[in-house]
Amino acid sequence: MRALCWNGVNDLAVETVPDPSVVNPHDAVVAVRLTTTCGSDLHFIDGYLPGMRHGDVFGHEFVGVVVAVGSEVTHRGVGDRVVVPSFIGCGSCWFCEHDLWAACDTTNPNAHLQRPVLGYPTAGIYGYTHPFGGYQGSHAQYVRVPFADVNCFPVPGEITDEQALFVSDAVPTGLMGAEFCDISPGDTVAIWGSGGVGLMAGHSARLLGAERVIVIDRYRERLALAHKHFDAETIDYTAVDSVQNTIAEMTGGRGPDACIDAVGMEGHGTGLQHAYDRVKQLLRLETDRATPLREALLACRKGGVVSVLGVYGLTDKFPMAVVTNKSLTIRSAQQHGQRYVRRIFDYIQQGDLDPSYLITHDLPLEDAVHGYDLFKNKREGCVRAIFRP
């Protein structure tokens, strides 16, 4: 089959690789119809997350059709059109039973690579380094899905592939982040980053009852999407002297009730602190440029919630005193997608959400290297590029 492979830092190629097959009796093989770029892929493309190997197929958001099932798959069948959450659950461990799917105890065969860093291993994820399981990813014609009965969700007929695609990761991540904020009627939520996850977090905050949503970014076309689709107030951080002061003025000096960091380790900013972080990151003295996280902590009102959706490694200069003295609550997770899929389908069917507006570039898989160049460098207003195998 054809697939997009990682061959080194910033070295991608579409190549012919072996087709996946049913390995365990609970597996399915899915023919990929659509797959999409994700900002978290950039972290290992740029070399900030270790654990990729030459020839690895990456990608973790996809919708497709089941073409083969193992002997113990009882609820899914050949021909089913399905969406698959990016983190792989087993459905029977303590964590899956408590809806903490990204913390599954069963699906990471390389748990020993995570224990020294995390203490306990996470679930496996498609196409996202060997410490996260070494599974081959979705930027391919076919992908193997373990525990198909709990990880393959049939897509209702009236929902398009383009809408269903983002139910695999971007929408549940954003919805989870908004849910972490414990939103009450009248609340103000500020969101750093207006990529796919940030936009879905803002849209979800509205669905959960936020009165005001403020989105911070430097890309005006993305800020325009936030204003258009969920009536966000926007801040271009390159056009103001201080994000914190601007937000304080917009909220009467109190600050937002909750803040969401939807950026992660390659965040941008202005001023000396951003320059310092950039130099340290380039020299591999730290993995993170955490400007958005620090700004969110400083801007949030006292007693508020900071929801962290961005992927981080080792963050330098973390302002713990801000957390303690302001009585802040930090909530974070990798996305527990299986918890949210059916609920998101309801939102789409009711007309409350159409995530397909994230698609700005629609390309064949053979053009995936170009698609990642557009996505990484924000060329041509790219928010998400999708690939059709």
UniProtKB/TrEMBL annotation:
<dbReference type="GO" id="GO:0008270">
    <property type="term" value="F:zinc ion binding"/>
</dbReference>
<dbReference type="Pfam" id="PF00107">
    <property type="entry name" value="ADH_zinc_N"/>
</dbReference>
<keyword id="KW-0479">Metal-binding</keyword>
<dbReference type="Pfam" id="PF08240">
    <property type="entry name" value="ADH_N"/>
</dbReference>
<protein>
    <submittedName>
        <fullName>Putative zinc-binding alcohol dehydrogenase</fullName>
        <ecNumber>1.1.1.1</ecNumber>
    </submittedName>
</protein>
<dbReference type="InterPro" id="IPR013149">
    <property type="entry name" value="ADH-like_C"/>
</dbReference>
<dbReference type="InterPro" id="IPR002328">
    <property type="entry name" value="ADH_Zn_CS"/>
</dbReference>
<feature type="domain" description="Alcohol dehydrogenase-like C-terminal">
    <location>
        <begin position="196"/>
        <end position="264"/>
    </location>
</feature>
<keyword id="KW-0560">Oxidoreductase</keyword>
<dbReference type="InterPro" id="IPR013154">
    <property type="entry name" value="ADH-like_N"/>
</dbReference>
<comment type="similarity">
    <text>Belongs to the zinc-containing alcohol dehydrogenase family.</text>
</comment>
<keyword id="KW-0862">Zinc</keyword>
<dbReference type="InterPro" id="IPR036291">
    <property type="entry name" value="NAD(P)-bd_dom_sf"/>
</dbReference>
<dbReference type="InterPro" id="IPR011032">
    <property type="entry name" value="GroES-like_sf"/>
</dbReference>
<dbReference type="GO" id="GO:0004022">
    <property type="term" value="F:alcohol dehydrogenase (NAD+) activity"/>
</dbReference>
<feature type="domain" description="Alcohol dehydrogenase-like N-terminal">
    <location>
        <begin position="25"/>
        <end position="156"/>
    </location>
</feature>
